[in-house]
Write a structure and sequence with these properties.
The complex is a heterodimer of chains A (116) and B (111). Chain A has one helix and eleven strands; from the N terminus they run E-E-E-E-E-E-E-E-E-H-E-E. By secondary structure, chain A is mainly beta. Classes of the chains: A mainly beta (116), B mainly beta (111).
Chain lengths: 116, 111
């Protein structure tokens, strides 16, 4: 399978714990995006990278959230001191710069977080 | 913040029927897109629209970019069971891949 891969698919944690999600994009894609999707809603933009550079962050991304893409390949999204309101599906997407300009993103299956 | 309003919220139709859904915004977008999400999967791009007034087809799907650049509709003709899923409209302003999604229209098709 050469699509976008996310791990873990499901994570259940207690409030206050830290969690980390990993995304492996399609191999030649230089753009990588994180979106968050809550039940019954569409995805909401969190942040995106071009290669290893983080170019934009949403106001939704509080200080407890940090995303990295250290070598311009895979990316991690860490949430510190989780809160129940962080419960959501975290979607990763990748693209090439030209395709991203046209809005064509390739999404992974998501990592579902449940905070108890 | 910016919002896209999709309607209807859900639809339950008979196989073979045509379906229409739309999306409106208070903001202007340079690109309108329609994505479909199946249960347990990420969204998949169906159709992209780049010019006001543009009408684009992809098989049984037809979508239009509103002339005001603030709305779009998606039609599905002769629905089949595999059309079941959630359809999202999305708008893009900045050509960066930062998309604003609607709340989705859930489609169920009865065989």
């Amino acid at each position: 399978d050469t699509g976008v891969s996310q791990d873990p698919r499901h994570k259940i944690t207690k409030r206050g714990q830290n969690v980390t999600f990993r995304c492996d994009p399609i191999s030649e894609h230089n753009r990588l995006y994180w979106y968050r999707q809550t039940l019954g809603q569409g995805p909401e933009f969190l942040t995106y990278f071009q290669n290893e550079a983080q170019l934009e962050k949403s106001r939704l991304l509080s200080d407890r959230f940090s995303a990295e893409r250290p070598k311009g390949s895979f990316s991690t999204l860490e949430i510190q001191r989780t809160e129940q309101g962080d419960s959501a599906m975290y979607l990763c997407a990748s693209s090439l710069t030209g395709r991203a300009r046209t809005g064509e993103l390739f999404f992974g299956e998501g990592s579902r977080l449940t905070v108890l | 913040g910016q919002q896209l309003n999709q309607s209807p919220q859900s639809m339950f139709i008979q196989e073979g029927e045509d379906v229409s859904m739309n999306c409106t915004s208070s903001s202007i977008f340079n690109t309108w897109l329609w994505y479909k999400q199946d249960p347990g999967e990420g969204p998949v791009l169906l159709i992209a629209l780049y010019k006001a007034g543009e009408l684009t087809s992809n098989g049984r799907l037809t979508a239009q970019f509103g002339i005001t650049r603030k709305d779009s509709f998606l039609n599905i003709s002769a629905s089949i069971p595999s059309d079941v899923g959630i359809y999202f409209c999305a708008g893009q302003q900045s050509n960066t891949g930062k998309l604003i999604f609607g709340q989705g229209t859930t489609l169920q098709v009865k065989p």
